[in-house]
Amino acid sequence: MALPNDVDVLVVGAGFSGLYMLHKLRGLGLSAVALEKGDGVGGTWYWNRYPGARCDVESPYYSYSFDADLEQEWEWTERYPAQPELLKYINHVADRFELRKDIFLETTAVSAVFDESENLWTVTSIGPEGGHVTRARYCIMATGCLSSARMPNIPGLESFQGQLLHTGMWPHEEIDFTGQRVGVIGTGSSGIQAIPVIAEQAQNLQVFQRTPNFSVPAFNGPIDQQWYREIKENYPELRERSRHTTMGIPFQRRDQAAIDISEEEREQVFEEHWPKGGFRISSCFNDLMRNQESNDSLASFVRNKIDQMVHDPKIAQLLKPYDHPVTGKRICVDTNYYATYNRDNVELIDVKSDPIQEITAHGIQTEDHFFELDTIVVATGFDAMTGAMLHMDIRGRGGASLREHWEAGARTYLGLAVAGFPNMFTIAGPGSPSVLSNMLTSIEQHVEWISDHLVHLREGGYTSSEAATVAEDEWVDHVRELSEKTLFPSANSWYLGANVPGKPRVFMPYIGGVGRYRAHCTDIASRDYEGFVLK
Ligand code: FAD
Ligand code: NAP
User: I need a surface site. Which of 80, 81, 128, 244 has the fewest CB within 10 A?
Assistant: First the structure.
């Protein structure tokens, strides 16, 4: 089928957000299409096929809740799902709800221009058939927070004659590292997940670490059938609970401040939570991101664990994070990460003290050493939260460009809409909890809120909805003020844009938690969409 010229709604992106949005729009009787750059659906789980790629939220919770039959029929096999299983799930959803006929793959939206005279968006895309222009009443950006992979700015990168791979743009064919000398640049979540798996195959693995990150073991394994059965029996209640928690996961932070008890007692609580795996440890006190002393005690607990897991004290020391609070960057959830450094074929290179100077045809040159490599794996992250949107030339009222509007940092109302850009909505955009949460819970809330809003517009006979400038200003201030009450801004994280040279340093996600945010959005809707100008 050819991409139509006119639709009610054009969705950009076919990851978890785009697929559910498309499904909801159909249910509203609106004509809708989704454009997707990749040649398959799945977004994050389509692009990030690196070895070890796995979710940090337990599988029964990192899944759609909108369809009870889907929830009951699907069978997760592991506690934390790996990328292939997630991609299978997303493809299953696309088939089950017959979404594919309205998804246009290998089709990149390059610009979106608002036509004020008709209240319509004109979206130009490039696909297999060449360029195309589609006009739509509404444009919904489901373009992803972590979908714009960044190559590091290292001199000579393009001259490398071996295999160069980015975790966020991983090839579809199987990569066999057997017998190879492999270098990994980057020790964020992607690097931390890939390193243990690559180490098992490669002849030698050299890890180029600039800044160590906090990582906690997942204690992953086959899904516990009794636990899973209980979840399935109680899904409606668990999902509802998730929607009102901080992180969108149905276990709440323990309501106790670490600062209120002794160091010994804290230690005991950490010890109890550590074997539970993943985020459990960061939820064991309610003041870990508000109180430096509380955070320091968790940080030193994790550092002690590193000492226990890594045999060589010098390597252990290098792996200990020192420059940011625990969870100031999304905590990494790993399988065998630290123990991997006990292997004879793995070497940790501290590129803080011996910086990478250049990449040559045959390897990596640091100030003091040359490392000959067959493959370089780049795990250097993303232009997060704004990158995908700003790749497009988006123009709102009066031809105003989004790039200019966001020049000093992303500005949105509720992370859902942008002043001056009527009839455009963003899913899990900057200013919403998105990346600080279980994103499936956040995505569903956004999709449902946008759907309800579109119904409201239809029923009220409106053809235009736009965030008011004053509402946007207040929201931006509110998001900033909330973050300033926490330790988050002290970390040089991608939440702040700190990983992209020249990017404005603005804390982008909403930190008040999924439940509080949801209540606020619901309240806005109940007050006739306060802060939106409807015409
Ligand atoms: P995406 O999945 O990023 O999909 C956006 C899609 O839009 C992409 O397919 C992209 O190709 C497409 N697109 C972008 N721009 C254009 C354009 N101009 N034209 C056409 N198409 C375009 N979250 C969690 O909650 N838990 C996790 O454990 C977790 N793990 C993650 C692991 C990795 C490696 C990464 C990168 C992210 C992870 N996330 C995790 C966040 C993850 O991005 C979300 O959970 C979720 O998958 C986002 O879905 P989405 O549809 O909003 O965005
Ligand atoms: P990231 O967290 O931004 O980490 C990038 C790493 O690359 C950092 O260690 C960074 O070091 C390093 N780096 C960047 N440029 C470099 C350079 N020029 N030279 C040397 N090192 C360089 O990116 P990511 O690991 O891809 O993760 C991004 C986000 O995706 C995560 O925070 C998480 O939200 C999500 N994710 C989740 C999972 C999961 O567990 N399910 C897995 C992967 C990703 P510096 O810190 O010094 O800049």
Answer: 128
Nearest protein CA to atom 14 of ligand 2, as residue: 380
Cβ of 330 closer than 6 Å to ligand 2, yes or no, is yes
**Where residue 350 sits, what CATH number does that domain have?**
3.50.50.60
Ligand closest to CA 209: 2
**Does 507 share its domain with 394?**
yes
Tell me the whole-structure pTM to 2 decimals: 0.98
Q: How many CA atoms lie within 13 A of 440 on its CB side?
A: 20
Angle at 237 between CA 231 and CA 238, to 5 degrees: 50
19 with 125, same domain: the answer is yes
> pLDDT for 160-196, tens place per residue?
999 999 999 999 999 999 999 999 999 999 999 999 9
**164 phi, psi to nearest 5 deg:** -115, 120
Question: Is the pLDDT confidence value at 439 over 90?
Answer: yes
Segments forming the whole domain that contains residue 98? 6-148+383-534
DSSP string of 256-323? --GGGS-HHHHHHHHHHHGGG-GGGGGGS-S-TTT-HHHHHHHHHHHHHHHHHH-SSHHHHHHHS--S
Residues 28 and 155 in one domain: no
Taking the centre of ligand 2 as the mean of its atom positions, its distance from the CA of residue 322, in whole angstroms, is 16
C-alpha pair distances (Å), 418 with each of 80, 321, 519: 35, 37, 20
Structural domains of the chain, count: 2
| Rounded distance between C-alpha atoms, residue 178 and residue 2, angstroms | 44
Residue with tokens 């798996």: 197
Instruction: Give the containing element (helix H, strand E) for 141.
Output: strand 130-141
Q: Is residue 376 located within the same domain as residue 412?
A: no
